[in-house]
Amino acid sequence: MYFVAAGLVVLSGLFYAAGNHEIGSLGADVCRYGGSFCDNPHYMLVAGGLAAAWGRFVSVR
Questions:
Q1: pLDDT of residue 9
Q2: pTM of the predicted model, to two decimals?
Q3: Distance, CA of 18 to CA of 15 (rounded, Å)
Q4: CA separation (Å) from 58 to 2, 8, 9, 18, 31?
Q5: Are the beta carbons of 17 and 53 closer than 8 angstroms?
Q6: Coil, strand or helix: which one is 5?
Q7: What are the pLDDT digits (tens) for 8-47?
Q8: For residue 38, how many other CB atoms are within 10 A of its CB?
């Protein structure tokens, strides 16, 4: 679950950079397919935080 959380945080950064036109032509393609996430990249960040919290909650040691 931590891998999923880390992936979502990385995607949040990608959508943030694409939404601010910081990654060139790749950003246009990213925002074409994930427009709502380019407008609100914090959705992915919150999902990553929830995934990390869930992973911590269900981890067995």
A1: 93
A2: 0.82
A3: 5
A4: 11, 19, 20, 33, 34
A5: no
A6: helix
A7: 999 999 999 999 888 888 888 888 888 888 899 999 999 9
A8: 21
